[in-house]
């Protein structure tokens, strides 16, 4: 029975696409017979000890975290927690989810270096035009990132376009394999009647309902969506999520006199988010940079058979997902005029909305079911562990041969 230790940033109840994927993947692997543990940062200042996750066979270690620096968790104790997790759980393999500055600390832990590694490449560290501090910080991050990739047996990219366009992965393409992200369809529960009523009240009587879900941060493109809303009359745009740009986005909506058309609704529980997805007309993913590598929320929209409007970011997987599903209209990144044109088209054509949305569920079951994804990832693990066993056997054979010849 294979024992796998995932190293990630956070874990639910912390809300985020990468976090939900990690939870779904770990639980699917456990259901397939693997023993699975996860090491992440605590979303609480104090941290807490090992927490079993329900009855699905997952052990979660949460290292204490003291805020963030340039979007990265600050956790000086992380290497000690990694050492502890390896000692207690005794994994056969480490699965590192990048980008994650704390995962780089595996290089400093001898017990971690002795294990085979699989790297899950969720995103490049993009030299953002909106936050130029990242380019400076990446200069220090990059050498350690290269060491991680050099040590990895295999690297999982989430889409062919992202793998081929990533400068960081280019030297290691022979070790790369493409496995898309997935979700556990059974996790997406039907919303309660109370949540549905609240959602209907939030939408009001608008002809077009547009939902955006995501952290209010520099690459998500919410500013583009707000500017586009100015020319999409009789629409209602709800933006769910928290983040450092909340005040800026609220001010922009006020300046454009859109307070009755655009609302920042903050963090929403899973039940309320599902109700909003169930009652929206369109999910919008207006991201502007390759930091948005996939857009897991597109899969959630597929669960509810909703049309999607998504930025076709060069070198990203966002457009690849949409083309595979054939459930979306693609827009130019950072182009409010193009986005507003697509939204107006969907406002005027309800049949187009229904046709696009109807394509989603079948695509989800065929390409993005978490059980299929977990099976492909487990096959990567088996290759890594088999190669390690083969090297050990070869090393012992050479040692025996050399010893015999010496005698």
TrEMBL record:
<dbReference type="InterPro" id="IPR001296">
    <property type="entry name" value="Glyco_trans_1"/>
</dbReference>
<feature type="domain" description="Glycosyl transferase family 1">
    <location>
        <begin position="209"/>
        <end position="360"/>
    </location>
</feature>
<dbReference type="Pfam" id="PF00534">
    <property type="entry name" value="Glycos_transf_1"/>
</dbReference>
<dbReference type="InterPro" id="IPR028098">
    <property type="entry name" value="Glyco_trans_4-like_N"/>
</dbReference>
<dbReference type="InterPro" id="IPR050194">
    <property type="entry name" value="Glycosyltransferase_grp1"/>
</dbReference>
<protein>
    <submittedName>
        <fullName>Glycosyltransferase</fullName>
    </submittedName>
</protein>
<keyword id="KW-0808">Transferase</keyword>
<dbReference type="Pfam" id="PF13579">
    <property type="entry name" value="Glyco_trans_4_4"/>
</dbReference>
<dbReference type="GO" id="GO:0016757">
    <property type="term" value="F:glycosyltransferase activity"/>
</dbReference>
<feature type="domain" description="Glycosyltransferase subfamily 4-like N-terminal">
    <location>
        <begin position="16"/>
        <end position="182"/>
    </location>
</feature>
């Amino acid at each position: 029975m294979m024992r796998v230790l995932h190293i990630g940033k956070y874990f639910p109840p912390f809300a985020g696409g990468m976090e939900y994927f990690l939870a779904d993947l770990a639980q699917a692997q456990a259901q397939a017979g693997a023993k699975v543990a996860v090491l992440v940062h605590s979303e609480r200042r104090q941290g807490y000890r090992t927490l079993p996750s329900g009855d699905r066979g997952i052990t979660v270690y949460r290292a204490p975290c003291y805020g963030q620096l340039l979007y990265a968790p600050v956790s000086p104790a992380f290497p000690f927690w990694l050492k502890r997790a390896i000692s207690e759980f005794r994994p056969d393999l480490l699965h590192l989810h990048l980008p994650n500055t704390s995962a780089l600390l595996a290089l400093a832990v001898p017990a971690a270096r002795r294990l085979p590694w699989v790297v899950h490449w969720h995103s490049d560290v993009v030299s953002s035009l909106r936050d130029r501090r990242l380019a400076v910080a990446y200069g220090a991050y990059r050498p350690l990132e290269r060491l991680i990739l050099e040590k990895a047996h295999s690297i999982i990219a989430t889409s062919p376009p992202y793998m081929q366009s990533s400068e960081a992965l280019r030297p290691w393409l022979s070790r790369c394999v493409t496995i898309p992200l997935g979700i556990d369809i059974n996790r997406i529960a039907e919303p309660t009647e109370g949540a549905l009523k609240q959602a209907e009240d939030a939408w009001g009587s608008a002809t077009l309902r547009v939902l955006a879900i995501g952290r209010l941060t520099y690459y998500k493109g919410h500013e583009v969506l707000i500017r586009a809303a100015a020319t999409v009359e009789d629409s209602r745009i709800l933006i769910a999520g928290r983040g450092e740009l909340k005040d800026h986005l609220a001010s922009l909506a006020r300046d454009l006199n859109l307070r009755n058309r655009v609302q920042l609704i903050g963090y929403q529980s899973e039940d309320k988010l599902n109700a909003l997805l169930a009652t929206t007309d369109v999910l919008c993913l207006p991201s502007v940079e390759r930091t948005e590598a996939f857009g897991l929320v597109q899969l959630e929209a597929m669960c509810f058979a909703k049309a999607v409007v998504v930025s076709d970011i060069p070198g990203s997987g966002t457009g690849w997902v949409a083309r595979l599903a054939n459930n979306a209209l693609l827009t130019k990144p950072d182009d409010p005029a193009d986005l507003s044109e697509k939204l107006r088209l969907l406002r005027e054509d309800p049949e187009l909305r229904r046709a696009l949305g109807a394509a989603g569920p079948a695509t989800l079951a065929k390409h993005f079911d978490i059980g299929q994804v977990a099976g492909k990832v487990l096959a990567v693990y088996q290759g890594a562990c088999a190669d390690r066993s083969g090297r050990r056997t070869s090393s012992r054979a050479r040692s025996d041969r050399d010893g015999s010849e010496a005698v």
